C-alpha cells in the first residue's frame, strides 16, 4: 500500500481510529496514535520508530516516549479490537488459533531476548518469541492479542526484568509443545487399583496401574500403520475448498484416542483423532486431536483443523506489511504497545481488504476454513459413517443407532 492509497483511505482510517480515542486522556498523546498507525500502513522499508517519525516530520524522541513512557491505556485498546471483531465480524464458523512467532534480535537488552530456536529463520539464534491469539472467520482473519514469552533465565533475573520494565507479575511459563510422537491407545487398556506385594513382602506396586500384559501405548503414526482399526479403515475423501489450482482433496480416517498421561495411564475420556492425507501428495499426513463433544461431525473437525493457516498469514502479513518484527526498544511496555498497535493496523487492513472484495491472502496456499459458497468441507467419496468411530464401544451409548440413521455423510 503506497502513500497515494493511504491518502485515498484517509477518511476511512480517521473514522476507524476514532473508535480508540478513549484510550488516551491527553490530546497531545492521542495525536501520536495515527502517526504510528499510518507509518505501519505506509510503504516505508523499515517501520521502527525512527523512520516513522522522520517520515511524519515529528521528533523521534517524542514517538519513542509515546510507545514506552507516555500514559495511555493499551489494555483498553486491545479490548476494543476484540469488541470490534466480536460485533462486526462474528461468524458461527469462527475459529481461534494460538501460535507463536519469533523475531531475530541483536544484543542483550530487548525484553525476553536470548539464544533460542527462531522459527522465522529456522535455526537457533538470538531472538524474542511472542505468543498470539488469531481470529479466523470465513475469509477474514486478524490478531486479537499477543504477549511476550519470558524465558526462564529472564524470570530468574528479576533485576534484569526491572531494567526492562517487565512487571513482577510476569513470570516464566513453558510453551505448550504438542509433538507428533504423542502416544496412547485406540481402546482404553484395563487399569487396576488392586494393591500387590510379591510374596506378601516389600513395598506394594503403585496404584492405579496398567494391568500386566496389556497393550503398550503407541504413537499416532504407529497406530495408523499397525492397528487394524485404522490401517483397515478405508479413507474418506473430503473437498476442503476450491483453490486457484482446483479443488483441494484430503483423505480422512478418524478414531477415538486415549492419550497416555504423565503417570503412564490412559486418559479417562477419549479424544477424537483425525488423520488427513493429501491426495496429491500421500506423504503429507496431518494428525489432529480434538476434545469436541461427542457427535461433532468430521466435517466440523476438519473445518477447525485446517484453519490454522490463518495465523501464519497474519504473522507474514504483519511482518511484511506492518513491521511487526521491527521493534527496537529496550522496554517491555513499548513492546507490548507495539504488538497492540500492530493489531489495530492489521484489523484496519483486513477490514479494507474485505470491504473492497479483494481475494483473501493465501487462498492459493492451503486449505482454508470455508469455500466461497459458505459450505462445510464436502464429502466426495463414501466411507465409514461419521459416527462409526474406530475404537468406540456401542454399549456406552444406547442412542447411537438412532443417531446413526440421522447423521450420514
Structure commentary:
The chain is built from 14 helices and 13 strands. It has 409 residues and is of the alpha+beta class. The chain has a domain at 183-303 and 368-406. Strands 5, 8, 9, 10, 11, 12 and 13 form a seven-stranded antiparallel beta sheet that branches. Strands 1, 2, 3 and 4 form a four-stranded antiparallel beta sheet that branches. Strand 9 and strand 10 (246-259) form a beta hairpin. Helix 3 (32-41) packs across helix 4, helix 6 (74-88) packs parallel to helix 13 (332-355) and helix 12 (309-322) packs across helix 13. The longest helix is centred in the last third of the chain and has 24 residues, at 332-355.
> What is the end-to-end distance?
44 Å
The whole-number mean of residue pLDDT values reads 83
Number of strands: 13
Which geometry do the CA atoms define? globular
N-to-C SSE string, H for helix and E for strand: HHHHHHEEEEHHEEEEHHEEEEHHHEH
Unreliable runs: 359-375, 382-388, 393-409
Largest sheet: 7 strands, antiparallel
| Individual helix count | 14
Residues in β-strands, percent:
15-25%
Q: Which structural class is indicated by helix and strand composition?
A: alpha+beta
Amino acid at each position: 500500500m503506497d502513500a497515494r492509497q493511504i491518502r485515498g483511505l484517509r477518511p476511512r482510517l480517521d473514522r476507524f481510529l476514532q473508535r480508540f480515542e478513549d484510550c488516551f486522556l491527553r490530546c497531545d498523546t492521542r495525536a501520536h496514535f495515527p502517526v504510528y498507525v499510518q507509518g505501519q500502513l505506509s510503504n516505508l522499508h523499515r517501520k521502527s520508530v525512527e523512520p516513522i517519525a522522520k517520515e511524519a516530520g515529528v521528533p523521534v524522541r517524542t514517538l519513542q516516549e509515546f510507545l514506552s513512557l507516555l500514559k495511555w491505556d493499551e489494555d483498553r485498546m486491545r479490548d476494543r479490537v476484540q469488541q470490534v471483531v466480536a460485533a462486526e465480524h462474528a461468524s458461527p464458523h469462527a475459529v481461534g488459533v494460538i501460535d507463536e512467532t519469533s523475531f531475530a534480535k541483536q544484543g542483550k537488552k530487548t525484553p525476553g531476548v536470548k539464544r533460542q530456536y527462531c522459527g522465522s529463520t529456522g535455526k537457533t539464534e538470538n531472538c524474542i518469541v511472542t505468543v498470539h491469539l488469531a481470529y479466523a472467520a470465513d475469509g477474514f482473519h486478524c490478531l486479537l492479542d499477543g504477549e511476550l514469552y519470558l524465558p526462564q533465565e529472564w524470570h530468574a533475573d528479576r533485576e534484569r526484568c526491572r531494567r526492562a520494565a517487565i512487571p513482577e507479575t510476569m513470570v516464566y511459563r513453558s510453551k505448550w509443545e504438542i509433538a507428533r510422537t504423542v502416544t496412547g491407545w485406540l481402546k482404553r487398556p484395563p487399569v487396576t487399583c488392586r494393591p500387590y506385594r510379591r510374596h506378601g513382602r516389600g513395598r506394594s506396586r503403585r496404584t492405579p496401574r496398567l494391568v500386566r500384559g496389556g497393550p503398550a501405548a503407541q504413537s499416532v503414526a504407529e497406530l495408523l500403520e499397525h492397528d487394524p482399526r485404522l490401517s483397515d479403515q478405508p479413507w474418506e475423501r473430503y473437498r476442503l475448498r476450491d483453490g486457484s489450482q482446483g479443488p483441494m482433496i484430503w483423505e480422512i480416517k478418524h478414531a477415538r484416542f486415549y492419550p497416555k498421561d504423565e503417570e503412564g495411564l490412559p486418559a479417562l475420556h477419549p479424544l477424537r483423532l483425525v488423520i488427513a492425507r493429501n491426495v496429491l501428495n500421500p506423504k503429507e499426513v496431518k494428525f489432529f486431536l480434538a476434545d469436541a463433544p461427542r457427535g461433532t461431525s468430521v466435517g466440523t473437525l476438519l473445518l477447525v483443523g485446517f484453519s490454522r493457516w490463518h495465523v501464519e498469514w497474519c504473522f507474514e502479513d504483519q511482518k511484511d506489511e506492518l513491521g511487526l518484527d521491527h521493534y527496537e526498544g529496550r522496554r517491555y511496555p513499548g513492546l507490548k504497545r507495539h504488538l497492540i498497535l500492530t493489531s489495530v493496523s492489521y484489523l484496519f487492513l483486513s477490514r479494507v481488504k474485505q470491504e473492497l472484495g479483494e481475494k483473501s491472502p493465501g487462498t492459493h496456499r492451503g486449505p482454508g476454513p470455508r469455500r466461497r459458497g459458505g459450505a462445510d468441507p464436502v464429502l466426495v467419496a463414501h466411507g465409514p459413517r461419521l459416527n462409526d468411530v474406530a475404537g468406540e464401544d456401542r454399549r456406552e451409548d444406547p442412542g447411537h443407532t438412532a443417531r446413526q440413521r440421522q447423521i450420514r455423510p
